[in-house]
Design goal:
alpha/beta; Nucleotidyltransferase, domain 5; about 350 residues; single chain
C-alpha cells in the first residue's frame, strides 16, 4: 500500500531566515539547530527517508519535527514543558540564604546549621543544604592559617623560591627538616582488614612505646631523600646529620640547604662547623612558613602512606619500618615541582592582608 502523500513544507522568507540563523549560530542549542536543519531540508523536497539519511537521524525524528513545524510553525520546534513539580524557591529566597550565610550569625552560635538557617528563612533543611552545595558554602568548616611576621619575609620567599625554580649550577638544593616526636604506637586490638562494603578498622585507643625523630634532606631535583633517625632532637643530632649529608654528597657539589628557624639550626657550634665547610649554604624560610619547605610535602607522604595506619611495638621496630619505606621511596624517587613564582605568592598574601584590613571596618 503506497504511503500517504505528505503536505509540503513551505517556508516564508521570515521563517527561512530564522531557521538558517538557528542552524548556523554557534550559541544556539544543538537540539534546536538540528531541528532547524531538518525543517530546512524538508522544505527542499524529498521523502522522510531521504531527509533522515542526509542529516544522519532517524525517520521518526524527521517525521516528528516535520509534523510539529507544520502544526505550530516556529514555536513547534521548542521543547514542550516537561511534567513535574513547579519550582517553589525563588531567586530572591536563594539570595536571602546566601546573604545570611555570608554576613550574619545565628544569635549566640558561631555559625549556621541547616536547621537554624531553615528556621530563619522558612525553608526545609534539604532546600538549604542544596543551596549551600550549589554555591560551595560550608558554614561548619574552618581552616587554620597564620601570617608570618618575619621582617625579612619578602627577601626569604624570593630566596627560597628562586632556589626551587632556578637551582644554581654544580649545586644540590636540599630541603631539610626534622619530623620530631614520631610515636611508636600499637593498637589495643588487631587492625581488621578491608572487606567488601567494609573499610579497614582499628581501635581508637592505643599504647605508646616511645618516640624517635627523623632528620630528612629532600633533593628537589631528583626527589631522593637522605634520612636518619635520632632518639633526641638537639644541635648535636643536627650536626651529626650535617656530617651525614657531607659524606653522602659528592665533594664537587655545592650544597644549598633550605631550613626553618628552629633554634638548633643557629647554635654557635653549628655556625663554627659551617665555617669549616664552606660548600654548605643555609637558606632560612620565614617564621611560620613551613609550607615553603618542600620536605614537609615529603613528610606528608610518609605520614599518609606509612605512619597513619601502622602499628609498632617498639621504637626500634618503628625506625626499621620507616627505613624500609624510605629505601623503597629512593628506589623510585619522585620530585615535587614548585610552580608558583615568588611574585604570585606575594600578590596572594597581599590580597589576604587587604581582606583582613577590610574586615575590621
Amino acid at each position: 500500500m503506497p504511503s500517504p502523500k505528505l503536505d509540503p513544507v513551505v517556508l516564508s522568507a521570515e521563517e527561512r531566515l530564522v531557521l538558517v540563523g538557528w542552524a548556523r549560530r554557534r550559541k544556539t542549542a544543538q537540539a534546536l539547530a538540528l531541528r532547524s536543519r531538518i525543517v530546512l531540508r524538508c522544505a527542499e523536497g524529498g521523502t522522510i527517508g531521504e531527509v533522515a539519511e542526509d542529516i544522519g537521524v532517524s525517520r521518526n525524528m524527521v517525521s516528528k519535527w516535520r509534523s510539529r513545524f507544520l502544526a505550530r510553525r516556529l514555536e513547534g520546534l521548542s521543547d514542550e514543558p516537561r511534567p513535574g513539580k513547579p519550582r517553589t524557591i525563588t531567586d530572591v529566597q536563594v539570595d536571602q540564604v546566601i546573604v545570611k550565610t555570608l554576613e550574619e550569625i545565628p544569635g549566640e552560635d558561631t555559625h549556621w546549621s541547616t536547621r537554624s538557617m531553615a528556621e530563619a528563612v522558612g525553608m526545609s533543611q534539604s532546600a538549604v543544604s542544596r543551596i549551600w552545595r550549589a554555591f560551595g558554602l560550608k558554614p561548619h568548616a574552618i581552616e587554620t592559617w597564620k601570617l608570618s611576621t618575619d621582617p625579612q619575609f619578602v627577601d626569604k620567599v624570593r630566596d627560597v623560591v628562586g632556589l626551587y625554580m632556578a637551582p644554581p649550577e654544580n649545586a644540590l638544593v636540599l630541603a631539610v627538616d626534622e619530623k620530631s616526636q614520631m610515636q611508636a604506637i600499637d593498637r589495643t586490638a588487631p587492625i581488621l582488614p578491608i572487606m567488601p562494603t567494609t573499610p579497614a578498622r582499628m581501635t581508637h585507643d592505643y599504647v605508646r612505646h616511645g618516640t624517635t625523630s627523623l632528620f630528612a634532606a629532600f633533593d628537589i631535583s631528583s626527589g631522593s631523600v637522605i634520612a636518619q633517625h635520632y632518639r633526641r632532637h638537639r644541635h648535636q643530632e643536627f650536626l651529626r646529620f650535617l656530617k651525614l649529608i657531607d659524606d653522602a654528597v659528592p665533594k664537587d657539589l655545592t650544597l644549598h640547604l633550605v631550613l626553618d628557624n628552629y633554634a638548633t639550626h643557629k647554635i654557635p657550634k653549628v655556625k663554627e662547623w659551617l665555617i669549616r665547610h664552606p660548600r654548605f649554604h643555609l637558606h632560612f624560610t620565614p617564621t611560620s612558613s613551613s609550607w615553603l619547605n618542600l620536605v614537609e610535602r615529603w613528610f606528608s607522604e610518609l605520614t599518609n602512606r606509612k605512619l597513619r595506619r601502622s602499628a609498632h611495638r617498639s621504637v626500634t621496630e618503628l625506625e626499621r619500618d620507616v627505613r624500609r619505606w624510605i629505601n623503597e621511596w629512593n628506589a623510585d624517587p619522585k620530585p615535587f615541582i614548585w610552580t608558583k613564582p615568588a611574585d604570585q605568592i606575594l600578590d596572594t598574601l597581599a590580597t589576604y592582608c587587604q581582606r583582613i584590613n577590610d574586615s575590621r571596618h
